[in-house]
Amino acid sequence: MEDCVFCSIIKGEIPTDILYQDGDFIVIKDINPMAKIHLLAIPKVHFPLLSMQTEEGVQVVSRIIHKISELAEQLGLKNGYRLMINQGEDAGQTVAHLHIHILGGENLDARWIN
Ligand code: 5GP
Ligand code: ZN
């Protein structure tokens, strides 16, 4: 998708440190971290919202959630983490390419992100 920052990162057009990747998704550090560890898991397939998912998208999101639990220790999240998806305007979604925030590395209490 043109003019999508996450598609550009996935294509390698914007140099970014990729912490993990496989055929389905990448994990990168958020450029503006809201916790000691703030990562983004980004499906390689472009779709803006959960409501716009194809069957492929459904599979990828479920794989990502499962895979993050396997990667937790390697990502520095062995004490736990919070997953979050901002959906649309009311949630303050700023990048229209579905992504899962992964927050941890400290006690998050009831912190919200925006
Ligand atoms: P949203 O508000 O859409 O749920 O989250 C988008 C996230 O992407 C924000 O936390 C923002 O800091 C992050 N972000 C935006 N542009 C870039 C970028 O070019 N590189 C990285 N690593 N993160 C980005
Ligand atoms: Zn995209």
Layout of strands and helices, then pairs:
Blueprint: H1 5-11, E1 18-21, E2 25-29, E3 37-43, H2 55-71, E4 81-84, H3 88-91, E5 100-104
Antiparallel strand pairs: 1-2, 2-3, 3-5, 4-5
Write up this protein.
This protein is α+β, with helices and mostly antiparallel strands. The chain has one domain (5-104): HIT-like (HIT family, subunit A, 2-Layer Sandwich), CATH 3.30.428.10. 25% of the residues lie in helices and 22% in strands. A 5-stranded antiparallel sheet has the order 1-2-3-5-4, with helices on one face. Strand 1 and strand 2 form a beta hairpin. The chain is globular and about 35 Å long. It starts with a helix and ends in a 10-residue tail after the last strand. The model has no long low-confidence stretch (mean pLDDT 92). Residues 1, 4, 6-7, 46, 97 line the site of zinc ion.
Brief characterization of the structure:
With 114 residues, the protein is α+β, with helices and mostly antiparallel strands.
List the keywords.
114 residues; alpha+beta; HIT family, subunit A; five-stranded antiparallel sheet; globular; binds guanosine-5'-monophosphate; binds zinc ion
